What does this fold into?
Amino acid sequence: MVQQVTSGIKISVDTTFEGTFYKNYKVHFAFGYKVTIENQGKDAVQLNSRHWKIYDALNNVEIVEGEGVIGKKPVLQPGESHTYNSGCLLTSPFGAMKGYYNMVNFTSSNNFKVYIPAFKLSAPFALN
It folds into this structure.
């Protein structure tokens, strides 16, 4: 598990390897990840959008941007957390992800970024 705190918001990420399958005559490696967003600050905040960079061992980079996370824009009061599961596909058994969430502080109305620490994606059978 990797963790990082930005502006009082703690991000924790845990990953799993889900398996391999063929799509468009190519093997793909499926990874799952569980993210917990915890408000350790004094103000209520809302997650509005996400920005991900997904890397694989073949030097491919995919940028994923969008509103909210899995269709939600969670509001977190001080001390609250939000956990969700998602996943990605790679064309190699190794990769990594990192990114950030765009959030708003309800007290100050300020927008701010909360960084998601880089985390590795690796198929266990491919490890030495």
In short: The chain has a mean pLDDT of 95. The CA atoms of residues 25 and 95 lie 21 Å apart.
